[in-house]
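Appendix B, record 7
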Amino acid sequence: MELQRAKQIVSNSAVDIDVQFNGVSVWIDQVLDETNTAIVHLRGPGEERTEVGIEDLKEVTH
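Structure tokens (predicted):
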């Protein structure tokens, strides 16, 4: 995923966009420009957050 697209997804929280990290659906909580990373957490129960590379995120279109 590109940095700009990740920012668009975060700013448009009213729309449910399926994003995956290593094949698992995640929510993007925050995009960190300076490190080209994002803070994400798994969809569903659990609130553990992880910092991952933007390039490792994939938008899934149905």
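Remarks on this record: Residues 27 and 41 are 5 Å apart (CA to CA). The chain has one domain: 3-59.
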